[in-house]
Design a protein that fits this description.
Elements (H helix, E strand, L loop, with lengths): L1 E9 L2 E7 L9 H8 L9 E7 L7 E7 L4 E2 L3 H13 L10 E3 L2 E7 L5 E4 L20 E3 L2 E8 L2 E9 L3 E6 L8 H9 L9 E9 L2 E8 L3 E3 L3 H13 L7 E5 L2 E7 L6 E5 L2 E9 L3
Parallel strand pairs: 2-3, 4-6, 12-13, 14-16
Antiparallel strand pairs: 1-2, 1-19, 3-4, 4-5, 6-7, 7-8, 8-18, 9-10, 10-11, 11-12, 13-14, 14-15, 16-17, 17-18
The structure holds ligand LBFN2T5F.
Enzyme class: isomerase
Subunit structure: Homodimer.
EC number: 5.1.1.7
Length: about 280
């Protein structure tokens, strides 16, 4: 079965993007994993599938699969790649687009300078809705935020839990380059307190408008950037009283600009999206 694709990235978080409006896309988890495989497939952190909208008042639906083959709720960098894809392919001439995702509607907008701003919606901060099992844990308050003790590798990490449609555990570290991202990341991702697993963020505060961030992503490992991770980290930093909006988030793959005006308000993310090449992959049936 041959499938046409576009290889894209957003700040180095890379994607295989598939047009499911003009070709039939019904793949099994093992086929998604093969596409994501960097040796036997194309290679990607996530696969993005562009579909016709199902509901009224929306322009498209877009689905997200992690490199491990699992479908997930949200992807910030992917949302920007999605906008560039539908624009470049002539699937829309709108600059502001309403898109259905598994976790609700997001509203990306193509800016004059080619960057894309996405209204990612309001963060979810109730532990059970993240979901995070906080039963019998003693939390600590910092600013407006609640920090939870998470025991990982014989240490207690104090984390903020935030959902941007997908779950995030954010901790503040003194130096992202020295942080145990590859050691603790998988342990946090699979920690039993997170019933749907979690994306693990490690944030260094540079000043009130700048942070460094590394994210060990659920189902993909450490990526060069994570858009929802950047949103979750800035929300946590503002709630903790450490940051003021807007915040420039320096990742290994580039800078994302995140703005948030506080409780109940949407998180706005601005950043790049790049097309790298087009191709066709022959998948085993
Ligand atoms: N890279 C993404 C997030 C992709 C999904 C994530 N790994 C999850 O499982 O929730 C982003 O830019 O937000």
């Amino acid at each position: 079965m041959k499938i046409k694709f576009t290889k894209m990235h957003g700040a180095g978080n890379d994607f295989v993007v598939l047009d499911a409006i003009n070709q039939a896309i019904f793949l099994r988890p093992d086929q998604w994993k093969l596409i994501a495989d960097r040796r036997f497939g194309v290679g990607a952190d996530q696969m993005l599938v562009v579909e016709k909208a199902h509901g009224d008042g929306v322009d498209f639906r877009y689905r997200i699969y992690n490199a491990d083959g699992g479908e997930v709720e949200q992807c910030g960098n992917g949302a920007r790649a999605f906008v560039k894809f539908v624009t470049d392919k002539g699937l829309t001439d709108k600059r502001a687009i309403r898109v259905e995702t598994m976790s609700g509607i997001i509203e990306p907008r193509l800016e004059e300078d080619g960057r894309i701003t996405v209204d990612m919606g309001a963060p979810i901060l109730t532990p059970a809705e993240v979901p995070f099992d906080s039963a019998s844990l003693e939390s600590r308050t910092e600013g407006q935020d609640t920090l939870w003790p998470l025991d990982v590798a014989d240490k207690t990490n104090w984390i903020s839990v935030v959902s941007m449609g997908n779950p995030h555990a954010v901790q503040v570290v003194t130096d992202t380059e020295a942080a145990p991202v590859l050691q603790d990341g998988p342990l946090i991702e699979h920690h039993p307190r997170f019933p749907r697993r979690v994306n693990a963020g490690f944030m260094q505060i540079v000043d009130r408008h700048h942070v460094n961030l590394r994210v060990y992503e659920r189902g993909a490992g450490e990526t060069l950037a994570c858009g929802t991770g950047a949103c979750a980290a800035v929300v946590a930093g503002i709630r903790r009283g450490l940051l003021d909006s807007p915040v420039a988030v320096q990742t290994h793959g580039g800078v994302l600009s995140i703005a948030w005006q506080g409780a109940g308000q949407p998180v706005m993310m601005t950043g790049p999206a790049v097309s790298v090449f087009e191709g066709e992959i022959d998948l085993p049936d």
